[in-house]
Structure formats: C-alpha cells, structure tokens
Design brief:
Largest sheet: 8 strands, parallel, barrel
Number of domains: 3
Number of helices: 11
Strand content: 15-25%
Structural class: alpha/beta
Distance between the termini: 29 Å
Shape: globular
CATH topology of the largest domain: TIM Barrel
Length: 568
C-alpha cells in the first residue's frame, strides 16, 4: 500500500510541476452578466453559464485573471482623452467587492485565479501609473506602508470569501515603475527608465518589496508575478528584471501583442533571453490578443500573416501556442479581454469596441480562436485526420460525385484560386440560389469531431452555412477565400449529414473546396476500480507521500481524506 501511495503521490507531484495554465483576463464578465448580455458558442447556441463553458472540454481553460483598482469610482484620467475631465470609463469598475464576487465564482468552478493589483484608481500601464487619489498626501515611507496594508486587507477579504488567489500580480505593466504620483503626463517624477537616477529605482523596489511581503504573509501558497510589457525589446526586458533582482517574486509576467511588440521571432528571442538569465523563474504571457476587425494604426502590421478577421485571429492564436510550447520556461498564457461582447445596454458595459475579444461584438457568437488556446495546456492530444475514411470526394478533384445537391445549381468548376482548386460552386442562374445544400451522410462512430472547409462568396453575403449534424457555422462572405469550421459530437454511431447549406442567402455566388474532418483524440486515461483505502483514510500525508502522526502544525499543502488541504 505504501509503495502504491508513494507512486500516486509521485505522479501527482510530477503532473503539478509540469502544470500549464491557459485562460484569459475576464475582468468585465461580471459587468456583462449584471447587464444581461447573452453569450453564444460558435454554432449559435446560447451559453447559460460562461464560466462553466470556459472550463468545458470545448474551450479547455483552467485559469482566469481579474484586475483590481483601489477606488474606480474616483474621477481619474480618461484613457481616451488623457485628461481628468470628469468622465468615467465603464470598464474601470473592478473594486474589491466586484473582485470578490467574480473571484469566488472562479474558484468555485475550479479555475486557478490570478489577481492583478493595479495600485491605482484607473488603468495602470507604461504611460499611466497614477497614485490613487486617497494616497496622494503620503510620503514615500508612508506609501510603502499603505501598499502593504492595502494589499493585506484585499487578500484577507478574498481569503475570507473563499476566493484566495493562486497567482498575484504586484502591479500591472510596471516597466517604468509604479505609483508615480498625481496625474502629470509630461513629468519624469518617479519614473524608472534605463538611465533614471538610482533613487527612483530604489523607491520602486521598496514598494514592490512591501507588496510582495503582504502576499507572502496572507497567501503563502500563491505565486507572485512582476508584470512588464517590453517583450518586443529583449535587452530591455532583461535589464528590468536584473534591476529587480532583490525583490521576492516567482514568475516573470509579460504582455505580448504582436502589433506593439513585433513578431513571434522577437518574442522567442525574449523568452530565450529570460531562460538564460533567469533560469529559476517561470514566464507567463499574462496578456495577449489580436484584432478580428477594425485594426487601427499600429506599430507592426501583421495583417498579411494573420488577416484582420476571425480566421486570422484564430491563426495568430494557433501560431502563438505553437511558439510558446517550444519554451519550457513558459507555463502560462492569458488572452486579454476575451469576453468582449458589445457595449451592453445604453453603453453601460463599454463605451467603445476594442475588437480583440473572442466573441463577436455584433452576433455575440464565440470566435474560432477561443477554441485554439487550450492546446497550450497540453491537455489536448493531436487530433486524427479521418477525412479519407469518411468523406467521399472531399476535394472535388474531377466532379461533385459522392455529394447530394438539393436545389440543382451546384456544379463542378475547374479553376485555380488558392487554396481552391477544382471546386464546387453555387452559381447564379437568373434565380436566387436559396434553400439548397450539397451534403453527404457518412456513418460516424462516437466521438468529437471538427469539420472544416475553404469557401468564398460575395463580400458581406450571409445565409451560407457549414453543417455537421445538428451543428452549423455561418460563413459570412468577404470576397476572399476563408476557412470555416464547426465542432460536433456523435453520441451514438450513425449517419451524420455534412456539407454546405444555403438558407435565404444574400450571396450571388458561393465556392467551396477541401473538406476536412478531424476526430478529437482521447487522452487514453480510463477510470479503474480500486479497493477503498480503509486503513489510511483519516491519516495526514505530506505532498510527497510521507505519513504523519497527526495534523501538521507547519504551513503547507498536505493530503487528508484523499484531498489536498492547505494548512495556514
């Protein structure tokens, strides 16, 4: 029994050491829900509980991040105007009471919870690190104590609400310091640049040390993160963390947005630099995102690599995951503001779209990028391509044989429009091409599948759907070749209708080609029966399997009654 127990604990601790975290900063979700904004999956089905959906096998997230402002009700610099103009930003609403509500739900659903202290009444970022209004009269020594007291009070409140964070950011994007003072955008007071006087860095370091001490005192099991956003300049990132070497922290947190921080090769250089110079520190990408529409003027335009579209956004997510999995020092990935879902009634949630979220601001449907991120956590094994096994003539090589066309206007077309080549076309014949389909119904065994197809139709056209059983995905035309996919589950082996359907379409032409069917792989882990642990059921063990004589008196994580118990 002891050998078996030790083996089980060895497996548990090995898995824990390799744990990867994937999710997003969902700080506005509670506000959307409070204003009754609905969310839908990519097939158009209403999501009853967004947190449960994010935890589901379809999305596969295991960690969520929430920001915290000191007093967001105070008039603070408006992010759009940069002025203290009396306006408020609806997104700046996360006071401690808000965070307790959302944090408690996050923990109840089994997510790891990252708390992001902004130490400001408003946005904290490289251009804005303004001291909370109530703290402006404090000198530096008093401010250090206030940081400790405030951090302690917030963490104690969360602990008492069963919302203890697992990760704690002590500041947000603190590349140039924090708590600079009153709003003064042209001043260099308290800034921490590479050439800044040592006194500024000493002040910054002392503030971080107080914040860190509060975290260790109140949440000893939590990992502490120092978050910067110089991922586009590897040497600058290295320099910042070298200067902060005396601060007690665990994880290097980075923001990475390709349109501000350059391409994945630059990110790779930064990650390699950190691995070489800070081998004891894990790295987490605590913020990332990519536009799916209306990209503004940016520092680096990658629209030729990842088009500004839903598919382009998904392609970025997939490529980012692929790159991060090459770096063993990276164990966290968070999409920033994935829950963006329109402005809410009367602009009460947002006052303007950001257009980088993983739901569509207009249709409120999930984007395909939402389903790409789970691969980072390593919980997904490579899917199996079963196209040739179940779909006849998937690429329309010579004709459209194997497919049933109801409506009669579908025809084979020999042409080359990469990646379309010898494709099927619904063509204009003088009558509207409505309410017809090109389908086949292979018999599929039980399992989860993803059907994809390349398509093109009139720019802005609607009413064209990729269908798979009872699931469908509308393929809105752009005038260019796009890729659509739809996930579906077969509960009982039997025929499943696959193909393209037109329903009251506005399109005058529709081309499609290259059907692909993937079957999701299983983990290979199956439940087994075991004898009940009657002897050791009420015995305390250390996490590495050592049996104790009684309840431990030292802080730490232990096993009791087959559960992990934190002793504080």
């Amino acid at each position: 029994m002891r050998k078996l127990l030790l083996l089980l604990f060895t497996v548990v601790t090995t898995m824990a050491s390799a744990q990867k975290y994937v999710g997003g900063d969902i700080s506005v979700l509670q506000s959307y829900e409070d204003h009754n904004v609905s969310y839908y999956d990519n097939a158009g089905n209403k999501i009853d509980d967004v947190l449960k959906y994010l935890k589901s096998e379809s999305v596969g997230w295991n960690a969520l991040r929430v920001r915290l402002f000191v007093n967001p009700n105070k008039t603070a610099p408006n992010k759009n105007t940069g002025q203290v103009d009396g306006t408020t930003d609806a997104q700046v609403c996360q006071d401690i009471n808000y965070v307790v509500r959302l944090g408690k739900r996050i923990k109840e659903e089994g997510f790891a919870f990252m708390l992001d202290f902004h130490y400001s009444d408003t946005w904290a970022d490289p251009s804005n690190q303004w001291t909370p209004k109530a703290w402006l009269t404090l000198n530096d020594t008093q401010l250090e104590q206030k940081v400790y007291d405030y951090t302690t009070e917030c963490l104690q409140t969360l602990n008492e609400a069963n919302a203890t964070p697992d990760f704690i950011q002590i500041g947000n994007e603190v590349s140039y310091g924090m708590l600079w003072g009153a709003y003064a955008p042209t001043s260099n007071t308290n800034r921490c640049y590479s050439s800044t006087i040592d006194a500024n860095w000493t002040r910054f370091i002392n503030l971080l040390k107080k914040a860190s001490k509060a975290c260790r005192d109140k949440c000893p099991e939590a990992k502490i993160i120092i978050h910067t956003e110089r991922a586009g300049i590897p040497s600058a990132t290295q320099s910042i963390y070298e200067k902060l070497a005396s601060v007690d922290y665990d994880i290097i947190g980075l923001s990475y947005y390709p349109f501000w921080h350059n391409g994945l090769s630059t990110l790779a250089t930064t990650l390699n630099t950190l691995a070489t110079n800070f081998p004891s520190k894990k790295v987490q990408i605590v913020e990332t995102a990519y536009y799916y529409q209306n990209q503004p003027t940016v520092d680096y335009d990658f629209s030729s690599t990842w088009p500004i579209s839903e598919n382009g956004q998904a392609a970025f997510a997939k490529d980012l995951v692929t790159e991060l999995k090459k770096h063993s020092n990276v164990d966290g990935l968070y999409w920033w503001f994935p829950e963006e879902n329109g402005n809410g009634p009367n602009n009460q949630v947002l006052t303007g779209w950001v257009n980088r979220g993983l739901w569509d601001n207009t249709t409120h449907k999930a984007h395909s990028g939402l389903y790409e991120l789970k691969a980072f956590a390593g919980s997904v094994v490579e899917d199996t391509d079963v196209t040739a096994q179940y779909i006849v003539n998937a690429t329309f090589d010579k004709d459209i044989s194997g497919w049933t066309n109801t409506g009669g206007t579908a025809k084979w077309k020999q042409n080359t429009w990469a990646p379309l080549s010898d494709y099927c076309e619904f063509a204009w014949t003088g009558n509207a091409i409505i309410n017809q389909e090109v389908v086949q119904s292979p018999t599929l065994p039980t399992g989860t599948y993803k059907l994809s197809v390349n398509y093109a139709s009139d720019n802005g056209s609607t009413g064209v759907f990729l269908i798979a059983g009872d699931q469908s995905k509308e393929m809105v035309g752009t005038g260019n070749v796009e890729t659509a996919n739809v996930e579906f589950t077969v509960s009982v082996e039997g025929p499943v209708k696959l193909g393209v359907k037109l329903q009251n379409t506005t399109a005058t032409w529709v081309n499609f080609d290259n059907f692909n069917l993937q079957k999701e792989a299983t983990t290979g882990i199956e439940a087994i029966n075991r004898e009940p642990l009657t002897v050791s059921q009420h015995v305390w063990y250390t996490i590495d399997g050592r049996r104790l004589s009684g309840k431990p008196s030292r802080r730490g994580i232990y096993i009791f009654n087959n559960q992990k118990i934190i002793v504080r």
